[in-house]
Amino acid sequence: MQVRFWELGNRDVINCKNGRKLGYVGDIGIDLKNGCITDLYVPVGSKYCGCMGKKGEYRIPFNCVVRIGIDIILVDIDEKQCFIK
């Protein structure tokens, strides 16, 4: 299965540990030397209806991705360790 970057942003990111929806993929990290995806970045809401920027984001190591499906991405993470302000 081949997926384009923009298609990742249309999938819900769900944490397998608690079934919680984290959001949607906003960006990815890439190792340019190896040409591999290293991280998924999932923004967490925005302050004041988007006027003042985002509250933070989850940096999810790609090796924590359990499965990429048609409409969801399952990840297995400790949310506190992956959250970045």
Q: What average pLDDT do the residues reach?
A: 90
Q: How many individual helices?
A: 2
Beta-strand content: over 45%
Distance between the termini: 33 Å
Q: Sheet with the most strands?
A: 4 strands, mixed
Structure classification? mainly beta
Cα-atom radius of gyration: 13 Å
Topology as H/E string? HEEEEEEEHE
Poorly predicted runs of 5 or more residues: none
Task: Tell me, briefly, the overall form.
Answer: globular
Q: Percent of residues in helical segments? A: under 10%
Strand runs, count: 8
List the helices and strands and how they pair.
Blueprint: H1 5-8, E1 12-15, E2 21-24, E3 27-31, E4 36-46, E5 54-61, E6 65-68, E7 72-75, H2 79-82, E8 83-84
Parallel strand pairs: 1-7
Antiparallel strand pairs: 1-2, 3-4, 4-5, 5-8, 6-7
Structure commentary:
This protein is globular. The strands form two sheets. A four-stranded mixed beta sheet has the order 2-1-7-6, with no helix packed on it. It has a four-stranded antiparallel beta sheet with strand order 3-4-5-8. The model has no long low-confidence stretch (mean pLDDT 90). The N and C termini lie far apart (33 Å). The longest helix has 4 residues, at 5-8. With 85 residues, the protein is mostly beta strands. β1 (12-15) and β2 form a beta hairpin. The chain contains two helices and eight strands.
